[in-house]
Automatic annotation (TrEMBL):
This is Isocitrate dehydrogenase [NAD] subunit 1, mitochondrial. GO terms for molecular function: isocitrate dehydrogenase (NAD+) activity. Gene3D superfamilies: Isopropylmalate Dehydrogenase. One of its GO terms (biological process) is tricarboxylic acid cycle. Residues 44-177 form the Isopropylmalate dehydrogenase-like domain. The keyword Transmembrane helix does not apply. One of its GO terms (cellular component) is mitochondrion. It comes from Friedmanniomyces simplex. Keywords: Tricarboxylic acid cycle. Belongs to the isocitrate and isopropylmalate dehydrogenases family.
Length: 177
C-alpha cells in the first residue's frame, strides 16, 4: 500500500492531468489497412498452434469456436520452435509472418525456445520484432454468471515486449551477467 502522502500526491497529479474535452479528441484510425480480412461473412484468422501445450490449447479453441459458430476461417501455419535443422522451418516462419500481416488477426500458441543452443533466435521474439508488437496487453475481467473468489475484477496489464529480458538481445551488460 502507498503512504497517505503518496496517495494524496497521486490524486493531485490525476486531478491536474488534462482530459480530452470530447470523444473527438481521442486518436482514431481512419484507414481500412488495420481491419481484419473478411470473406463471405467470415474472418480469416491465422492459427499458429505452437509446441507442447500451445497445440493442445489451439485445438480446444478450434473446437469451442466451431461449437459456438464463431464466424472465422482458420489459416493454420504449423511453425515450430524446436530446432530441426530443416530449412523448411524458416519458410514456415516467413509464411506465418505473411499470413498475420494479410489477415491482421491471429492466435498463436507458445513456440519452444531452445536455450541449450546459443545463436538460435526465439521465434517468439522474432515474431514480436518482425510485427513490431511492442506491448502485450492482457485483459482480466469477471465473467457474468460465474461465481468467483474475487468480485468486480476489471484489470488491464500491459507488458513491454521489446526491451529488457523480453527483447531477446544476446549480450552481457556486465561480465558474467
Amino acid at each position: 500500500m502507498f503512504s497517505r502522502s503518496s496517495q494524496r500526491a497521486a490524486l493531485a497529479l490525476l486531478r491536474s492531468t488534462k482530459r480530452p474535452a470530447d470523444r473527438a479528441a481521442y486518436a482514431t484510425v481512419q484507414s481500412d489497412i488495420f481491419k481484419p480480412t473478411k470473406f463471405g461473412g467470415k474472418y480469416t484468422v491465422t492459427l499458429i498452434p505452437g509446441d507442447g501445450i500451445g497445440a493442445e490449447v489451439s485445438e480446444a479453441v478450434k473446437t469451442i469456436f466451431k461449437a459456438d459458430n464463431v464466424p472465422i476461417e482458420w489459416e493454420q501455419v504449423d511453425v515450430t520452435g524446436v530446432e530441426t535443422g530443416d530449412k523448411h522451418t524458416e519458410e514456415l516462419f516467413r509464411e506465418s509472418i505473411a499470413s498475420l500481416k494479410r489477415n491482421k488477426l491471429g492466435l498463436k500458441g507458445i513456440l519452444h525456445t531452445p536455450v541449450e543452443r546459443s545463436g538460435h533466435q526465439s521465434f517468439n521474439v522474432a515474431l514480436r520484432q518482425e510485427l513490431d508488437i511492442y506491448a502485450s496487453i492482457v485483459l482480466i475481467k469477471n465473467i457474468p454468471g460465474y461465481e468467483t473468489r474475487h468480485k468486480n475484477v476489471d484489470l488491464c496489464i500491459i507488458r513491454e515486449n521489446t526491451e529488457g529480458e523480453y527483447s531477446g538481445l544476446e549480450h552481457q551488460s556486465v561480465s558474467g551477467v
